[in-house]
Amino acid sequence: xxxxxxxxxxxxxxxxxxxxxxxxxxxxxxxxxxxxxxxxxxxxxxxxxxxxxxxxxxxxxxxxxxxxxxxxxxxxxxxxxxxxxxxxxxxxxxxxxxxxxxxxxxxxxxxxxxxxxxxxxxxxxxxxxxxxxxxxxxxxxxxxxxxxxxxxxxxxxxxxxxxxxxxxxxxxxxxxxxxxxxxxxxxxxxxxxxxxxxxxxxxxxxxxxxxxxxxxxxxxxxxxxxxxxxxxxxxxxxxxxxxxxxxxxxxxxxxxxxxxxxxxxxxxxxxxxxxxxxxxxxxxxxxxxx
Amino acid sequence: xxxxxxxxxxxxxxxxxxxxxxxxxxxxxxxxxxxxxxxxxxxxxxxxxxxxxxxxxxxxxxxxxxxxxxxxxxxxxxxxxxxxxxxxxxxxxxxxxxxxxxxxxxxxxxxxxxxxxxxxxxxxxxxxxxxxxxxxxxxxxxxxxxxxxxxxxxxxxxxxxxxxxxxxxxxxxxxxxxxxxxxxxxxxxxxxxxxxxxxxxxxxxxxxxxxxxxxxxxxxxxxxxxxxxxxxxxxxxxxxxxxxxxxxxxxxxxxxxxxxxxxxxxxxxxxxxxxxxxxxxxxxxxxxxxxxxxxxxxxxxxxxxxxxxxxxxxxxxxxxxxxxxxxxxxxxxxxxxxxxxxxxxxxxxxxxx
Lengths: 290, 353
Hints:
The complex is a heterodimer.
Chain A: H1 2-30, H2 37-54, H3 59-80, H4 89-111, E1 125-128, E2 131-134, H5 135-157, H6 159-169, H7 171-176, H8 181-203, H9 215-228, H10 233-253, H11 261-275
Antiparallel strand pairs in A: 1-2
Helix pairs in contact in A: 1-5, 1-6, 1-8, 1-9, 1-10, 2-3, 2-4, 2-8, 3-8, 5-6, 5-8, 6-8, 9-10, 9-11, 10-11
Chain B: H1 2-17, H2 20-38, H3 42-67, H4 76-92, H5 97-119, H6 125-144, H7 146-149, E1 155-156, H8 165-187, H9 196-205, H10 207-212, H11 217-243, E2 245-246, H12 253-266, H13 272-288, H14 292-312, H15 317-325, E3 326-328, E4 335-337
Antiparallel strand pairs in B: 1-2, 3-4
């Protein structure tokens, strides 16, 4: 039981951390609450499904190609839709909802509402104590650690990372310092979609693939971003692991707990907003205070 | 007697026929009244009944989000609370519809207060996120206590609104017209009797300034939550009575989003915007369902239309059309038909070269 909770929490937390990191990046840089973020994750899972189960391509190349395709899709979506209404907070939310619905319905039209499995990248089981885990689950943990460190290095060591961080601290001053804010926004949106795609690649073989799979992770990454502090990358990663474990513990310990998945995260999110609106690591900006 | 008639015709001519928007609204009302005479096919009428119900629901979102600026991403909470309240009262306690519908609305007001108290400490995106959370928590609880709430299937066997489709249609339309009128007056910024409307506008535009002008913004926002919750609840109660099941789908994230889509399509910050949005989109998506391919295409069409509207008519359809039909007199601020050269009241030239 303990091993199950530990490993499953790590897998869920890792997936949420990758998703929340991308979400938080876009929120920090563009002040965009991107509801369609997890739709990119869903689209990737379906791309993997198409290329491996229908077209019979090998796993690794199809994973890489889908990640890049979804990055491109993300940038096109930003350029066509989000960029044009970025002044209006409500319009951004509604564009996000519409896009997510659009992807969902197109996938429903093509594939129908049934749940589909993807065969794992690697076969085999590993025993930890009494519980057994597939290699795929171990791979998911390793992949999320690598991705998170990778993004961390990009943010801390490269000039792109410096630009991203400075824009999220102060957009106007960053612009005055000669940073091309619009271009960095576009690139950040691409990175964010790419991160969602990586999360999709990693967990597609573990979970079932279906056209409504975007809704639940969306709720949890919203909660994670709030708990960690809006726009704080470190905070959202740590919060994702906290929520991943909270969810796993509720699912394993509480009877009928699987119905409460979303509810737990939402309860944590609401209490965070009431007790400490800036979250664990966030700063609340002067102009956003009441 | 003839004097009254004279003033009535003067009033109709000056306040309704002279303003294209109001003329359209009057024609639309007349049309709705005559529909059952043209076709009394139950499926057709039931769809229109649901359209009326969703109109109340979307307009109640507009009161809160459009006028007061509190963008509520979980508006289905009010709808769902009322639907479940109605189900409990009607199925277990045997209350008739005329009692359950107002009670459902009142319990929703309570829900509005519960959401409102924590939410009002926050603003902008933070408030939206808190409101998003509540229906999800409630859905989780409903599914966990499935023994009492019917779980995923919900509570069925609710009494129908009335015996026949035609009667239900008139009841729903009547409630819709009254609710819309009350909401319109509640939010009307130009009203000289009720000041709430202008205060709500002030809160949306600049809350800090409103506060420093001596307005207790918290109370007014709470009032907006209560009114919005009440009408959202009325819609939920009517819905439960007309489809006769209250299930977790009444609290769905998608239902919350639909209120937003309808309202933004029609035009935010107008009570007539949601009316146009729902009467346009809901019957369209319902009638598309008849055909097999339409079943899948309807939400694709809706999403595409939404994106198009946001990019090219960000104010919404009604405002776009209104600006093509009406012109406001620069001197006396009275609405005039676009084709007029000079204002009908003060004679000021309308279209300055």
